[in-house]
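Trying the structure run again after the queue cleared.
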Amino acid sequence: MRRLHDILKGKEALKLESETMPEWISPMLATLTHDLRPRNGWIYEHKFDGERCLAWRRAGRVTLYSRNRHELNSTYPEVVAVLEAPGPDFILDGEITAARGDLSDFQLLQKRMQLGDPQKAEQSGIAIFYNVFDLLHHDGYCLRALPQKARKEALEKLIDFPAPIHIARTIRDWSPAFQKKICAMGWEGLIAKDTTAPYVSKRARTWLKYKCAMGQAFVIAGYTDPKNSRTGFGALLLGVYDDAGNLHYCGKVGTGFDDELLAALSARMKPLEIDKPAFVDPPRQKKGIHWLKPVLVGEVGFSEWTSAGRLRHPRFKGLRDDKPATATRREDPQ
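Done. Tokens:
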């Protein structure tokens, strides 16, 4: 078995510090960009369309957490089963995805994310993958102060498990033609990483995310009555918070739902109904609207923001139980 000190050399080895395994590490977040020009000392990785997952292995026992520290062991028991093996303690960072063909499918994963019974999860027929892209702690040592290049090398050489565990592939060469190609193939996008940067528990510009199509998380703060033969609801009313804690209305989404999702969402929303809108700038329409306590979060794809701050051509992709409503912000490229 290889050891961490066998892999790290020179200055990188000197940056290693022993630590008691932390109970929690807030994940590093990428900054949205539309500018993926070649950068010296940067690498690229597949941007996965799934659920963020951090894995703790302590004395052979594994705990999976979402980005807001919800335990995920019952939802992804096959990941726990593979990682729970004798060996050094570690903390991994990665993303859970479900695949339809060669592409990740968040709407398919959505059905798995709602299952909290391990047996039902394994019998769902929805195959998932844990795509690991960072190593934060290993065998009593903190790796977060190391440059990204050293952490990735340690990850590739120290973490070796069979499916459904995958190590995210490093892409070293970027070009506009490559970017166009992967978007045409249906990729969610790319993550660009500064190989000299440490891991920090905040949103940082040393990780940049490029999306082939626009999309982000929104608070669901209302819904409209269904029309014609539709059941459940007509459309969801969406919003994002500003830094002062005000919830701003961004528009409605009425596509992307099948009958099963309409029924499931309706059941989640009914107990959350309130008398007044949570928006500081609610839509003018009042008839046929049901206001909601702003706790549910949904992932929505769209073509662009209008000048009035509304979504154009939105499509619902699924609920995001891994993201707190108060953390939603309008994501503008920087």
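Residues 25-211 form a domain with the D-amino Acid Aminotransferase; Chain A, domain 1 fold (CATH 3.30.470.30). Worth checking whether this holds up in the mutant runs.
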